[in-house]
Predict the structure.
Amino acid sequence: MVDSWIDVHAHFYPPETEDQINERWERMKEACWTSPAAPRWDPESTLAYMDRTGIAMQMLSNIPKTLKALQASNDYAASLVKEYPSRFGLLAALPTDNPEAAVTEITRASEELHADGFAVTCHYNDVYLSDPRLDPVWAELDKRRAVVFAHPDAYAPGSMGRPCVVVEVAFETARTVTDMLYAGVFRKFPNIKFVLAHCAGALPALSGRLLLIGHENWIPNPQHVTPTEMRQHLLRLYLDTAATCPTTLGAALAMTTPEQLVYGSDCGVPCTTDATMDANLRALLSYPGLTPDQIQRIGHNALTLFPAAAKRME
């Protein structure tokens, strides 16, 4: 279907005992999931899917809710990259509820695990990415000119009897990035390259409203972010295509350009199946608002974001 694409939005689970798998499944059922069986992950099945669809490399991310589990997860993903250097990359998870630990993990992941980039959750253990306490984390990432993949919390409680991944994740992304704009995060740390999961959720559809009325004198704007500045920040964001095609692409292309779109599959999590990944990919490949050349470039745009991974793919 495609040729040598790079997938920036792919997940994994570290090895787990049966008790751990079943415990995770029980938590999912409490959050309104009705899965017939506990979800599992293994690299062989993922590589088989990649081979079938023409995906050359996946950038792996997983963000557990405790520091110990998060570090162990990063270690396991690094071992996968070492075993399959031309097929996997590492987006090292950061514990953004603990800025000091996050800075330490940035250093460890960069120098010991050779991470290709970093992964954060929009709302992690009750801390939003716009929280001013995270400035030291952003400063360290800005110094390193890092790529940061921002994903909503897919394991939050259900809403109206349905898992949060159906609707709520889209609004969490929009809510968080909007607050980051008003907080001046993108102004203060311009060297970070942010990649937003799921085509930035509801943000593209709401971006016109933000630019139209988001700077009126009845809206708190302590950083005095102007419409022009806000538009520039929105244009610089990278958006992945996971579980969004085709309907979100129109709004995304109104907010930014095709050069800022990167391919994502959302592979490796319970809300994603081979069938839904195939359907999303087919919708992208046949999207009438992009030329065939632009669509193919979406599959390769991430190569410039991850030069070390691109070198491993050669």
Observations:
- The two ends are 20 Å apart (CA to CA).
- The mean pLDDT is 96.
- The domain at 5-313 is CATH 3.20.20.140 (TIM Barrel).
